[in-house]
Amino acid sequence: MLQAKPPSQSHFILGVDVGGTFTDIVLIRATDGCTFLHKTPSTPTDPSLAMERGITEILVAANATPAEVQYFGHGTTVATNALIEGKTAPTALITTAGFRDILEIRRQRQPHNYNIRIPKPLPPVPRHLRREISERIFMMGRPNVAPTRQELEPHIVDFSAANVAAVAVVFLHSYLNASHEAQVVAWLREALPGTFICASHEVLAEFREYERTSTTVTNAGLGPVMSRYLENLEQRAAAIGLGAKPHIQQSNGGFATPQEAGQLPISTLVSGPAAGVTGAVHLTKQAGFPDTITFDVGGTSTDVCVIQNSTPLIAREREVAGYPVRFPMIDVHSVGAGGGSIAWIDSGGFLQVGPKSAGADPGPACYDRGGTQPTVTDANVVLGRLNQKALLNGRMPIRAELAHAAVEEKIAKPLGLSVEDAAEGILTILNETMVRAVRVITVEQGNDPRRFSLLAFGGAGPLLAGPLARELSMKTTIVPPGPGLLCALGLLMSDARRDFSLTRIVPLRTDARDVIVAAAKQLREKGEQWLASEGAFLSNRVLDWAADTRYLGQSHELTIPMKKGPFDAGAINNLITAFIDEHTRLYGYAADADIELVTLRLTARANVDRPAIDQKPAESTTREKLKDRRKVHFPSRGYIECPIYDRAAFRPGERIVGPAIVEQMDTTAVIFPDQEIHCDEHGNMLIDFL
Amino acid sequence: MSLATTRPAQSKNAGTTDAITAEVIAHRLRAASDEMMAALVKTAYSPNIKERRDCSTGIFDGTGRLLALTAIAPLHLSSLIGTIDSVMAHFPVNQMHPDDAFVVNDPYNGGGSHLPDITMVVPVWSGGRVCAFVANIAHHSDVGGKVPGSESSDCTSIFQEGLRLPPIRLIEQGRLNRNILDIILSNSRTPREREGDLKAQIATNVVGRRRVEEIFERFGTQVTLDGIEAWLDYSETRARAGIRALPPGVYENEDYIDHDGISPRMVRARVKVTIESDHLTFDFTGSDPQMAGSRNMVWNATLAGVYYAVKALIDPDLPPNAGYFRAVDVVAPKGSIFNAQSPAAVGDRGSSGNILGDLIFGAFAKAAPDRVMAGCGPLHAVTFSGIDPRTGEYYVDYETFAGAAGAQHDQDGKDAVRVHVSGAANLPVEAAEHEFSLNILRYELIQDSGGAGRFRGGLGTLREIESWTKEGRLVGRGLRQVAAAPGFGGGANGRTGRFIMYDRDGKKTVLPANFSDLPIGEGERICLETPAGAGFGPPFERDPERVLADVLSEKVSVTAARTLYGVAVKGTGLNLTIDRAATDALRGARHAAS
Q1: Is A336 exposed, middle or buried (0-12, 13-18, 19+ CB in 10 A)?
Q2: CATH top-level class for A84-227?
Q3: Which end of chain B is more exposed for a tag (fewer CB within 10 A), N or C?
Q4: Which one of B311, B390, B574 has the shortest CB-CB distance to A158?
């Protein structure tokens, strides 16, 4: 059950984001919004160690007691890392006779159409642990075949002998009739106590057996890993004496209890980017920009996501470690280009940027750690956009001449360009990749990027946002107070959320109403049960309905929201009308064909009572905002003597006309000559074209 | 007669456009083509385009040179080549108007490689003249002809294969010619799908045209045209750089198409690959004359096979455009299986395309053994049609099932994948059972089917389907039911494929490799076994641990481990180990014998 006590005199909310390299911790004093940030190296063997240490340290810094922590949001990459590193639990599969190879035949495609050298990814369950039993739900022609306990026995013996830690049960058409799966799960739980067992109808009650099998076995393989992790986490939290239990960030933007996340670990895949987007939703809503593209640029990759009407778009499927996981998650689109991306000349003589990155080691040439390949960072140093002496508030010394030499040697000379033109060229080509990434999630989905503002974060987002916004004629660029803050904010602002679905392929006609209502009742029961189990501290409980629908004969569905739910007498007709409207809006035509329902969807949401966050910009200092001047190169303008500002000294209401460079500890913003800055009351920097 | 794709050499002078601007223009042309593909897949109606992505999009300059192509299935790599020339031959540019759109599907008239592929072309205007064309091509799952799906290997003339459209103006100055649309729709068994897909194709070209216009507006006509030259030069340079890494020489190979669509007969396919410094020539002289059935490849289809192989063998990310094609010459005698002439039937050209892939890889095996895969198992296809008793409605279920890939010098062949030029996905069992009156009873890998080798060939698949369809009819086609996928370097051939029919009493009949209009009664079953991939290197050199792993996973039987690989495996169930002494004896005996 979720714990959240009524506000007391002094209380804090705590967010902990455990990444592969660092564990980020944020602590906010609810009474005055004072924010404490802390970063500590992660401890991959037992991530809760770093967390315990970090929490203890930040509490000391904030002069707070553990008991005063009354909300605890937690993001973790445990599930993602286990998949990528192949460290999932030994998993077995029980499936319908004749179909154990569904997982290996996949959709019968090559991994790449032209690169034959790329092998197929290893299946998450090896063939000798994929076992069949005579069981079948038929659509016609034959009676169903029920499973028997006897046929299961030899498999149970082998699973024990092979030290299997998790078993997935996936039968054909289990979304229509779950009884066979439920029976086998009951037998397995009895025979294999302590083994993580999950059935496909519980993980994903949707048709398309390959995707459902892949999702279910992935969940099974993560179950023991995640459960163990969360047990440790809860014990540590209790040992520290925190006044709240952890709320686990999910990839759908909501949080789950540790018990839930332990049962459905796939719900936490890509929860890191999801937390960032959730924080972005909160921040842009507060700042008055409901339609925003997030632009999160790290060292090796860039994540972009569409937020429309303060709601992030949701994807239904994502491939992780080569296998599809079908589960609702915030639709974050990634491209392999970032601040550390290496620029090179390919065999045809074109300049390429990425996907290779110099990473942290050796890093860009200007770090003087042995890197000789020019990176995006080096190009920015050459142009004076990045500080040519040191980054990270002086902690990272920079040798500009090494950046210059790398760009000159590897790019400028071969292309016959000046070093500045070569550096501008690197950024121009990089920007093409960024433009493409944003067009994929906007134009290709029927959205006009000009309607959106751009939220630039991550270490290199504010550095690279200008040309992107210009090329796509986007509105205001928003630079939040700190590039790492959004993730932490997301952890603290998430609501409880769980998504349910059930496939029912029936024509949308009034004679199908009984089938639809019966399915909807099943879903509603699950949703209400879940809300009830989440405890008394939830408020604003909401059930949102939607339906995946298509024209007869199509193989793809459109998810249509059902505002009044599926029980209303006019529900079917409303759904038909809404489907035709959406099909016309997206594809430009409506067909003269029958429409069918494919899958009903229910999202249960609720707010958790927690102290309000009134997050404030850093305390006022007497620092001078203009800290330096240097020559900065701008396209078609050449070098301009440019003022360098200290972000920390900016006050709300500040207005500055470009060209300008704004430096802060962990990022640098470039204000082009045709741009101006306006600082809002929340500590955001808003950049507009003049 | 030699037919070369090379046009007169283009100027290497990219004008005054700077290198970075030229590259940005190239990026945008490619992005425009990709956006067209996204629009086509998004707005299409039928699963064949939407899910299987049997389509491609492209951009051409005003003289018909290909600038950018987005093709997910490699067989589409050349499907748009020649289309613009043919359109311009029928409609001179000075008779074109803004907002015109042309449609064509006749492979003997610039329209792709078989009739189901319908191409739509739109001119792009800049500075008052036609500066470019955008085009897209989509596989329509029925365009009439003698069988549902319009693809039967036993057609003997293109006139049996469906509606033939020479280049015609479907849209004139923005006005759709409804008469033409009606002709197309009334020639298809599935007109509703066709109308949705054709509308998607029209919408796709609107997107493409706008994008290309934006490029010309943004950079100016001359700078854009200069950028285009630089872009073509770039691809040519890159292709030539890739070719230079290969050892020069002449490499020949021969393979067989084991059924001409009408009867089981060995049809010879020959290639002579000449690698000269930075240039490749593929000469198919010596291949048999065009076949009686529909497995013939028109010139375009052969080019697709060659361009696919070049990309796969020298540079998988090589951007397909007219620049890269300059580094490659193709020769195929007119009237041969690789340059079929009207009215030869061409519907099932995809099957031969896969043999073409093996043929070329086999030739390169001698030049670059570390880049090729051994012979592959091509697809087997069945089309069910009839009346679903649950709804009383007539349906057509067109599906293709993967064979497997051949092994490579350092890795096993991929099990159950589409190979070479074909790439379509399967239909989920649960979707098929909902949509059609069929029960899928088994879908699995076939033990011991992969050709033995130091690296094993991929396993073929078995799919058993029971029909409850009224008036059910079957069309089937397969290759490598006789001429197995050839092993390389001492590796064994892959197992051949077959079709088996079971009646209600379980009585078994082996079907021919190609058939159409075969009745299938309620409760009768068909079992497809697709051909497997071949092995690479001598099987006795396979690491015994790999053999053991294959036995544990039941991909290789204990018997085959012993007889084919010389590895003795002892134990039962999960407790399997290598019997070292027996293995040494088996392998030693082989050594002694040789």
Answers
A1: middle
A2: alpha beta
A3: C
A4: B574
- Closest-CA distance, A448 to chain B, in angstroms, reads 13
Q: What is the pLDDT of residues A583-617, one digit of tens each?
A: 888 877 788 889 999 999 999 998 876 666 655 55
Count of beta carbons in the 10 Å neighbourhood of residue A467 = 19
CA distance B253 to B362: 6
**From-to residues of CATH 3.30.420.40 in chain A:** 12-83+228-268, 276-494
Min CA distance, A537 vs chain B (Å)? 41
Q: Hey, what are B197's tokens?
A: 């897909």
In B, residues 546-575, which contact A (CB 8 Å cutoff)?
552-555, 573-574
Question: Is domain B19-240 in CATH 3.30.450, yes or no?
Answer: yes
Cβ(B495)–Cβ(B532) under 8 Å? yes
- Name the CATH architecture for the domain at A495-608: 2-Layer Sandwich (3.30)
* A596: Cα separation from own chain's centroid: 31
Contact, B31 vs B192, CB < 8 A?
no
Domain A12-83+228-268 has CATH 3.40.630.30: no
For chain A, say whether B46 makes contact (Cβ under 8 Å).
yes
Pairwise CB contact (< 8 Å): B444 & A119: no
Query: CA-CA distance, B65 to A247, in Å (whole number)?
Result: 59
Per-domain boundaries in chain B: 19-240, 374-542, 543-593
Size of interface A-B (CB pairs under 8 A): 213
* Mean pLDDT to the nearest integer, B214-225: 95
Strand ranges for A375-475 from DSSP E: 390-391, 396-397, 453-457
**Could you tell me if B374 lies within 8 Å of chain A, comparing CB atoms?**
no
Do residues B422 and B73 touch, judged by C-beta distance below 8 A? Answer: yes
Cβ atoms within 10 Å of A231's Cβ, excluding its own: 13
| Facing residue for A348 by CB, picked from B39, B234, B466 | B234
8-state DSSP, B352: H
CATH of the domain spanning A276-494, picked from 1.20.120.80, 3.40.50.300, 3.90.1150.10, 3.30.420.40: 3.30.420.40
Contact B426 A105 (CB under 8 A): yes
- Using a cut of 0.80, tell me whether the model's pTM lies above it: yes
B129 has a chain A CB within 8 A of its CB: no
Tokens of A190: 């009895």
Tokens 């950024």 correspond to: A427
- By C-alpha distance, the chain B residue nearest A103 is B444
Nearest residue in chain B measured CA to CA from A122: B414
